[in-house]
Amino acid sequence: MVSFLVFVRPARRRLLGKEGRFWHGARAGTLAARLPAAGSRATASSPTRSTWGAPRCAFTPFPPKCSHDLAAYAGGNALVRVPAGAPARGVGEACEVLLIAG
């Protein structure tokens, strides 16, 4: 599902003449666990598990050990955006996520 959201959906949207950015449909939320600092990539993402509640949805990141860490991606139902060079963020800080499963 992650590969579809990252590669296929943006390409399909562009072919249909719509905006095709990667984070189309992202939601605002709150971190329920610490999110490590970002590396030098343009934009990275980390799998997260969402917890629905008021006033905002909370997200617990599962930072993968490397890009092929399937266990981390299998445990999440959303991706949290991690901009290049972003410092570590703590519990309660705002975040932007892309839901990948209900």
Structure description:
19% of the residues lie in helices and 29% in strands. By secondary structure, it is α+β, with helices and mostly antiparallel strands. The chain has one domain: Beta Barrel (Beta-clip). It has a five-stranded mixed β-barrel with strand order 1-3-2-4-5. A hairpin with a 6-residue loop joins strand 2 (43-51) and strand 3 (58-61). The protein is globular and about 40 Å long. The two termini are 12 Å apart.
Give the structure's gist in a few sentences:
By secondary structure, this protein is an alpha+beta fold. Helix content is 19%, strand content 29%.
Based on the structure given, which CATH architecture is correct? Beta Barrel
Give the overall silhouette: globular
What does the average pLDDT come to?
76
| Order of strands across the main sheet | 1-3-2-4-5
Instruction: Briefly note the CATH topology name.
Output: Beta-clip
Order of helices and strands: HEEEHEE
Question: What is the beta-strand fraction?
Answer: 25-35%
What integer value in Å does the Rg equal? 14 Å
Domain count, please report it. 1
Percent in helix: 10-25%
Uncertain segments = none
The profile of the biggest β sheet is: 5 strands, mixed, barrel
Topology of helices and strands:
Layout: H1 2-15, E1 27-31, E2 43-51, E3 58-61, H2 70-74, E4 78-83, E5 94-99
Parallel strand pairs: 1-3
Antiparallel strand pairs: 1-5, 2-3, 2-4, 4-5
